[in-house]
Amino acid sequence: MSRADTERLAAALALSARLARDDNPTDPARVLFELSACVPFAHGAISRWDAARGCHRTASSLGYPRPIVDAINRFLPRHPLFDDMLGRRLPQQLCTVPPRLRHGPVFDEVIVPQQYTDGLSQCLFAPDGRYVGMWGC
Is pTM, for the whole model, over 0.90? Predict the structure, then answer.
């Protein structure tokens, strides 16, 4: 394992341990910042699921222009990959999306125009299993 991999793993373990013992709601901006030490990224966002309004709302964003993260909040949950991410509870890496699924508003209005070539999206769940939002970079 390279030194960079070891440092990222250590950062991920430290973040995980802190979140596990933190009884107070965690500041999404701090979590996003700490995630950047685990998974290096140029753009990242955490969005909360607003069940009352039936939509995602940005909790924190780092590097994304506001219209882009708003479009991701609207379009990603409508893409077939989102149901897969919800069901499997595993992240989806952009570079592994099959060509037959590289269509729809999230691709046509965000990914292709912004020339994103890679990224990672993951659904977030509370300890009791409730869906609470998503994060992506």
Answer: no
